[in-house]
Amino acid sequence: MSLTRILTEMTYRSEAGGLIYTFVITMDQYQNISVRDIRTPTGSLCSDTNLLPEFVLQDIETAICQMRNFNKQTSALSGVLSFNNVASEIVQFTTAFPDTNYRVVYDVPEFLSVRTSNKSTTGFTVETDITFTGDIGFDVFIDQPSDVYGTETFSAETTKSVAFTVPLPHADYRVFFSTEEFMAIRAINKTVNGFDIDVDITYTGDIGYDVFINDTSATLSFVAETSKQVLFPRPLFCGAYRVAVSVEDFIAVKVVDKTQDGFTIEVDVTYTGDIGYEVFV
Predict the structure, then answer these.
(1) Rounded-to-integer distance, Cα 95 and Cα 122, Å
(2) How far apart are CA 52 and CA 63, in angstroms?
(3) C-alpha 248: how far from chain center
(4) Handedness of CA 220, 70, 76, 137 (dihedral sign)
(5) How far out from the chain centre does Cα 43 lie?
(6) 215-226, pLDDT tens digit by residue?
(7) How many CB atoms sit inside 10 A of residue 159's CB?
(8) Does residue 1 or residue 135 have the better pLDDT?
(9) Counting C-beta atoms within 10 Å of the first and last residue's C-beta, which end of the chain has fewer, N or C?
């Protein structure tokens, strides 16, 4: 059983000065964006006399940004494989992927090792280290890299430390691993600055990791400060977003220097306390 996201569509309404325009943004399973069915106040855009004003073009750009951010951590293909006293099952894609640069993560209900082998544009093989009966869920990601990702090379070791270049807003993140060997891997000692990769054997080889985090909300702790900078673990697709703040004191707060990489929160007094934020695209 598998589920493939073939097409995602969102219909938008753009309005200014009493003029109403509508359009549809579509994204296929390979993250390709298209704009269709553009309607002007006088009908379809097919007529060569219908022009799109600048505010509509800006709204279309914002809508494309929203679509990309909405789907950035949604798997392109997901499903459940039923193993019946076997050690491998094959996943076949209904439509071939453009390349093999996809990542497969698993939901395993039992204590067993799972690996991905024979990756191709038309599918892959799921292998277990023992003969297994039961269900294993999977998700295939083909979008942009995760919030933090990389590869650690083990040399007769059981642990490796991963240090983030930029601290994450909180330690409530998920870590997925990829390896071609049968072994148990876990993430321990998670902090905003990094985590440790821990394996159950003395290992020589590479282990890839992907970190996923909700980077659109967090709480900032001010200590006698007037500003705090927020850096996204992974840049947004555009800077056209809104930031809502939550504070329990009577102080004025503003958001400045918004870019795809982050923003700064400023207060009008030297402040000690917490300020929460939520990013809306």
Answers:
(1) 7
(2) 15
(3) 31
(4) positive
(5) 37
(6) 677 788 899 999
(7) 13
(8) 135
(9) N
Residue 112's closest CA among 87, 79, 82, 95? 87
Distance CA(250)–CA(126), nearest Å, equals 56
> 131 in helix, strand or coil?
strand
Contact (CB, 8 A) for 159 and 199: yes
Q: Are 95 and 140 in contact (CB under 8 A)?
A: no
Helix locations, the chain, DSSP H = 54-71
Length of the chain: 281
Per-residue pLDDT, 112? 77
Q: Is the pTM of this model over 0.85?
A: no
Answer yes or no: are the C-beta atoms of 126 and 136 closer than 8 Å.
yes
Residue 280: Cβ within 10 Å count: 10
Say how many C-beta atoms besides its own lie within 10 A of residue 179's C-beta.
Answer: 19
Mean pLDDT for 167-171 is: 80
Of 89, 78, 99, 93, which is closest to residue 123 (Cα–Cα)?
93
C-alpha closest to that of 146 among 196, 214, 59, 73: 73
Dist CA 107 CA 66 (whole Å):
29
- The count of other CB atoms within 10 Å of the CB of residue 150 is 14
For 42: left if phi > 0, alpha if psi spans -120 to 50, otherwise beta; the answer is alpha
Cβ neighbours of residue 165 closer than 8 Å, sequence gap 6 or more = none
The rounded distance, in Å, linking the Cα atoms of 138 and 78 is 6
Place of tokens 């006088």: 42
